[in-house]
Amino acid sequence: MTNQNVVVADAKSGINMTITVAAVSGSSLFPTTAQKPPAVPGTYITISNKKLLQNLDINTSTRINTWVDSMRASSPTHVKSSVNDQSSWMVQHPSALDMFEQITNASKGKQIVMFLDYDGTLSPIVEDPDRAFMSEAMRATVRKLARYFPTAIVSGRCRDKVYSFVRLAELYYAGSHGMDIKGPSKGSKYKKGTEAVLFQPASEFLPMIDEVYKALLEVTKSTPGALVENNKFCISVHFRCVDEKKWIELAKQVGSVLEGYPNLRLTQGRKVLEIRPTIKWDKGKALEFLLQSLGYANCTDVFPVYIGDDRTDEDAFKVLRERNQGFGILVSKTPKETSASYSLQEPSEVMAFLRRLVDWKKLSLRRQFRLRKRLEEIKMSLPN
Ligand SMILES: [Mg+2]
């Protein structure tokens, strides 16, 4: 008899519980590859194989439906709201453009640090995720932004992929939901020391992720439009081009593969299911790591601004609320439950906000320069 670790995921609450299952040798519940998973934190209890299988059967269809319902709720075309809902939501999460002055006033005397999600924030959501290009105007805006503020791109995508879209070497990049972090390769005055920042907290999961990617490619072949993307430390199964009548079927296919990998968990996004290691690491942790890398770990004079459109960005919004520093901006045209303080409707508004931020900073630097020059002149004119 051997023990196997199993993580039971509750998609609704987001809680994963790791349980140790007593299994008879040679009648393994999971494929060989899942038998030696990296250790994960959790609560350990022992239950029988039979009982576990019964529970899994009962929970499977509920779980699959919950995944799809949650994904629908995150997808803008499915969010219906009345005019009243919209206006009361806008009172709680006003436009960051309308509140620009209040925002910049709150940042006075503090170093603004910018965190930007990519898909749906800097680029529009498109049918083919490989063609989610950002406009030249947006690239130029982000380039200017990075001149004035330390700037990081935080994405669920593989770091190399998101870099191939953004193509700005002076930024920090946190790919795979923050599990693959790299500092600027050149041209940033915010780069600390000579050592390049590189952090990959889930590197031991790489072989497992590759294996699951291949299994998902195979199992989803029969669903037209299904697209599986390997994001290095996580996997995205895109539903964007799948007939909605087939969503449950595709979610079931994903679930069938995941049952063999207890150390991976699933989250839902905009027309996407994402699979990643169960380690306690997310975009919020990545934000904290980057602030620390920049030397702002315990500073009160830092003002982080995080802009994102997805459920996975909520972890970062929550961190900002808990730290009581800076603020989050949710990119959404419709009311959504969020920990962000402000909202912007779409990437074009994000660009307008970033441009205003650059112009405001330029102006305040010019004012400071003029003031310093004037003071110098006064000093020089005083008799010795
Ligand atoms: Mg996004």
Task: Describe what this molecule looks like in 3D.
With 384 residues, the chain is α/β, with parallel strands linked by helices. The chain has ten helices and 15 strands. Helix 6 packs antiparallel against helix 7. The longest helix has 35 residues. It binds magnesium ion. The site of magnesium ion has 7 residues, from loops. Pathway: Glycan biosynthesis; trehalose biosynthesis.
Write the topology of this structure.
Layout: E1 2-10, E2 15-23, E3 46-48, H1 49-74, H2 83-92, H3 100-106, E4 111-116, H4 136-148, E5 151-154, H5 159-166, E6 172-175, E7 180-182, E8 198-199, H6 206-219, E9 227-230, E10 235-238, H7 247-258, E11 264-269, E12 272-277, H8 283-293, E13 302-308, H9 314-323, E14 327-331, E15 342-344, H10 347-381
Parallel strand pairs: 2-3, 4-5, 4-13, 5-6, 13-14, 14-15
Antiparallel strand pairs: 1-2, 6-7, 7-8, 9-10, 10-12, 11-12
Helix pairs in contact: 1-7, 4-10, 6-7, 8-9
The structure holds magnesium ion (MG).
Residues 117, 119-121, 308-310 line the site of magnesium ion (MG).
